[in-house]
Amino acid sequence: MEKNVKVSILLDIYGKMLTEKQYKLLDDYYNNDLSLSEIAENERITRQAVRDNLKKGENKLSQFEEKLLFMKKTLEKEEQISKILNELKKIESSSSDKEIAKILQNIKEKLIELNI
Question: Measured on CA atoms in the order 114, 79, 72, 56, is the torsion positive or negative?
Answer without folding.
Answer: negative
